[in-house]
Amino acid sequence: MAITDRLGRPLGNLRISVTDRCNLRCAYCMPERDYVWLPRADILHFEEIGRLADVFGSLGVDRIRLTGGEPLTRQDLPRLVQLLARKPWLRDLAMTTNGVLLEAHAQALHDAGLHRVTVSLDTLLPERFRELTRFDELGRVLRGIDAAARAGFSAIKLDTVVIRGVNDDEIVPLLERAKGWGAEIRFIEYMDVGGATLWSRERVVSRQGILRAIADAYGEVEALPAEGSAPAERFRLVDGTVFGVIASTTAPFCRACDRSRLTADGLWYLCLYATQGLDLRKPLREGASDEQLKTLLTGAWTFRADRGAEERLGLRERAPLVGKADLQNDPHLEMHTRGG
Ligand code: SF4
Hints:
This protein has eleven helices and twelve strands. By secondary structure, the protein is of the alpha/beta class. α1 (46-58) packs across α9 (290-302) and α2 (77-85) packs parallel to α3. The two termini are 28 Å apart.
């Protein structure tokens, strides 16, 4: 039984964060020195994730993306992939990773049933990578993408957050490198989500700025038809190369948003900008039936009217969404906790 929210948007796409831990500290996501982590006892077991996934599936979810933190820091992830890949209602199973541990796991993930993989890649310059992420891991990330390209996934995507004065001079080199892997690259506007404490409007390179840089290098850029609720606008160069732009900051797409997020400890968020999540872990561990869980989910989704990014667009003074003190008090406000 598919359900819709107050703006007529179906429940379609579930992002499941399997851990809040990460092995990088990207400046646009985890710029601070210290973080408050979720208690280990609260982290959902794979079987609990599988059970919740089935309840979501019964209400219309047919696409799942595994996220983190960094999902590959979770032990034995291919076992969860295998468990989810067997779900008859699941049409698409993808994962977003920073790629550091991908070389060792790409083939096992593919063989376990993962369809697609998206790797975050913001620079091709080792020194810049270290400055941006605080770790000297570019070589491992690039080898991870090589391994993914060999493993046989139905698609590989690269996600690049473009930040003025940081990596906006690498749009064309990254696009060229993506071609070599047969990967589709998506350029993402820097977002003022929870945890992005260094965000400022001046550091955002807009969709137009990204497209201008690409058109300057390649000439004509052709817009492709929209793909359902997918956040990326897709474009084609004259040589057939397809790339995407995710304009979450200057041209948000909340009207078509069918995404929700399950944190590693079982809180369900209906929007990336939502300040409250619905605790599913407690009823799950207290023995709620599938019907009771369905009722909970249905009640929340049918009441949903979230348009977080669109509402931010209307603000005259726009600054980071959440202050550092509030992030320390509630790690669920962090983007890395709710899976970006
Ligand atoms: S801001 Fe919220 S409603 Fe808008 S696209 Fe993002 S998750 Fe969806």
